[in-house]
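Task card 7
Instruction: Convert sequence to structure tokens.
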Amino acid sequence: MAKTKTIYPRIETLTDKRNRLLVEGKLAMTEYAARAAAVDKNTQRLRALRLAKEAADREIALLNPAPEKPKRKAAVRKTLG
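Output:
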């Protein structure tokens, strides 16, 4: 009977360990989801800022077209002879 008495405490500790790991796993997943949500929120904010800037740049380009570059004159080739 000495063996059975030592097995029961071990079974209880394995159960306790399993429960502890389940709780820690749930906590880790919650933290991971919170970080992912924060990253997604920041990505949406940055995308909105970028799209607004691009729209403003397009509007400015339409209102103020870039001046045309002056055309170059054809180069005069000198012939040796």
